[in-house]
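FAQ: What does the model actually see?

It sees only this:
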Amino acid sequence: MTAVLEPETAVAPHPDIAHLAPLLGTWRGRGQGEYPTINSFEYLEEVHFGHVGRPFLTYRQRTRAADDGRPMHSETGYLRAIGGDRIELILAHPTGITEICEGTIVRDDEGMRIELDSTSIGRSSTAKSVTALGRSITLAGDTLSYRLRMAAVEQPLQHHLAATMQRAN
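And it is asked to produce this:
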């Protein structure tokens, strides 16, 4: 268990993920969700990227409803650099879904852009039918934004979520 806990003292990021260091920290902001099978909604979000000195970032996400603060969704997992511009995102959702995405990272003077598509979706027997996910993540200065695409409940892959967050620390 101690292998995935963030260190109590500062540890330099592993050299294989040094180019992901701008993501480290806590991000907070606001998002909007929509899908053909649900009512549109707004949410507040907090994302935390950490590291333990190994060749991956830890990832923790939590959302709550913008109108009354009730808890909504959460995800936890790892962001792995796998060589060159290739990247993997491995996530677990409390809804009975696991998600493995692979894609690319592009770095430039403005920041970075990560494009990910699911290569595997795992589902418990009680999870809703999610068949594909895609994520576009952009970092520009102290602003992190993303768009999430989803294919679920007999709907094709399409826009589901978008959020913009500011660095909190």
